[in-house]
């Protein structure tokens, strides 16, 4: 990971060139303000999906089911399916 100090003279091109080589942590006035990472079409598709309200809600429901003990371990599922 690289670090980069951002100022009024920092250009977008400089930042993009740095991100092409590695993840970049941007600092302003000595404090981290952003983490930039290279991104492709597959990443964009996942990014959009992960922020859909229905997906976020399904994850919340799954977490509640785990906390309530309403799920099976992988081992228990294998036993139920006769795969052990």
Q: How would you characterize the overall build of this protein?
A:
With 84 residues, the chain is α+β, with helices and mostly antiparallel strands. It folds into two domains: 2-36; 41-80, no CATH class. It contains four helices and three strands; from the N terminus they run βαββααα. The chain has helices at residues 12-21, 41-50, 53-67, 74-80; strands spanning 2-5, 24-28, 31-36. A three-stranded mixed beta sheet has the order 1-2-3, covered by helices on one side. The termini are far apart.
Given as residue ranges, the uncertain stretches (5+ residues, pLDDT < 50) are none
What order do the strands of the largest sheet run in, or round the barrel if closed? 1-2-3
The largest sheet is: 3 strands, mixed
C-alpha Rg (nearest Å):
21 Å
- Total beta-strand segments: 3
User: How many helices in DSSP terms?
Assistant: 4
Distance between the termini: 43 Å
Integer tally of domains: 2
**What is the average per-residue confidence, as pLDDT, rounded to a whole number?**
90
Quaternary structure annotation: single chain
Any idea what the shape is? elongated
Q: What's the helical proportion of residues?
A: 40-55%
Q: Strand pairing plus helix content: what structural class?
A: alpha+beta
Please provide the ordered H/E string of secondary-structure elements.
EHEEHHH
- Estimate what percentage of residues fall within beta strands: 15-25%
């Amino acid at each position: 990971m690289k670090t980069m100090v951002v100022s009024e003279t920092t250009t977008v091109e400089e930042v993009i060139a740095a991100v092409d080589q590695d993840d970049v942590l941007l600092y302003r006035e000595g404090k981290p303000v952003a983490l930039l990472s290279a991104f492709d079409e597959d990443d964009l598709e996942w990014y959009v999906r992960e922020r859909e309200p229905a997906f976020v809600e399904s994850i919340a429901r799954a977490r509640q089911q785990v906390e309530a003990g309403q799920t099976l371990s992988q081992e228990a599922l294998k036993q139920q399916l006769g795969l052990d």
